[in-house]
Amino acid sequence: MSKTKLLTVVVPVYNMESYLSRCLDSLLQDKILGNLEIIAVNDGSTDGSLALLKEYEKRFPDVVRVIDKENGGHGSGVNVGLAEACGKYFRVVDSDDFVCRDAFSAFVERLEFEDSDLVITDYRRIYTQDDKSVLVSYSGLEDSRQYSFESLRLSDLNGEFFVMAGSTYKTEILRKSNLLLFEKTYYVDMQFNIQPIAYVKTLVYYKLDIYRYMLGRENQSVAYKSLVLHRDDHEKVIRWAVSAYSNLEKTATESVLSYLLLVMNFFLKTHYIVFSLLSKSSFNTYSRIKAFDNFLLLESHRLYEESNFNKLIFLQRKTNFFFSRVGGHFAFRLFSLLKRLKAKAAKRSADNS
């Protein structure tokens, strides 16, 4: 399949037999098949994922292409897909997620007339424990309006930033940025969210609720237990991100740096939570977070100073990381209790007013 397509969707797959049909069926719609390329990268699955993928490849030979490879992690699957992509545009759909069929179909049809470097769409976080759905919308942006990145106002993003679930890049932009995600490493979506931004000149927002980001599986990388278990990976990627930002401080525009500051503040907050509050080994937690804090100060003074606006990070620094020294698990429970008490007090105050 070497014919140029409008959109390449890469689906990294590892032991997702139970979710694969839901994912692929949501993408494969008759009226958009001519514009679509789906590259399903089987990352060494040991269940029936590969056999199921082969069935889809046989049914849709002009659309679905299966690449079977040894296990290399989520980043490896995206890297292979990007190297093989024939689409003008490129996006990733994880095999345990799916898209809203109507919104995705409308998206592909609108994409035919698009030439922006980055296309942003809405997405939903769906929490499987209670089936709660939270829409993440960039409502401060105008539907279908093309923005230059330099004219983008951060206030219009309402605290959100552009994530893998809502981002469709021109393939040439990703390649020009030399995007290459770490292999056998969790949290590489950080790299996807950061690396290409300095190369984006124009972006457009489509008010389409497309992606369904499924949350709640215990072994997901974003689950707290998984964050603690894979904290070495989180540190590896966050150190990469800090260094990448530091390098951009020498070359990038202020618009790019200010936007990436928003992204980095979120990642840094998560990292300090993981190492300051969640790890059970207080000595290891203390030494690791102190070493990272020193690294951050030396690598980017701007990031360091900005992170002080986070109350947890500021308090930890002021107390020489007291909570890490006394035991992070205890501190996490204390912070959770204080947060609940504050919420109850606020509710009582609102009820009495």
Output the keywords.
single chain; 14 helices; alpha/beta; 48% helix; globular; Spore Coat Polysaccharide Biosynthesis Protein SpsA, Chain A; 353 residues; ten-stranded mixed beta sheet
Descriptive account of the structure:
The chain is built from 14 helices and ten strands. The model has no long low-confidence stretch (mean pLDDT 91). It folds into two domains: 5-215, Alpha-Beta Complex (Spore Coat Polysaccharide Biosynthesis Protein SpsA, Chain A); 224-341. The protein is globular, with a radius of gyration of 21 Å. With 353 residues, it is an alpha/beta fold.
In CATH, the topology of the largest domain is named Spore Coat Polysaccharide Biosynthesis Protein SpsA, Chain A
* Share of helical residues: 40-55%
Major sheet details:
10 strands, mixed
Low-confidence stretches: none
Strand content: 15-25%
Question: Can you tell me the CATH architecture of the largest domain?
Answer: Alpha-Beta Complex
> Helical segment tally?
14
Number-wise, the strands total: 10
CATH superfamily caption of the largest domain: Spore Coat Polysaccharide Biosynthesis Protein SpsA, Chain A
Q: How large is the radius of gyration?
A: 21 Å
**Gap between N and C termini, in Å?**
66 Å
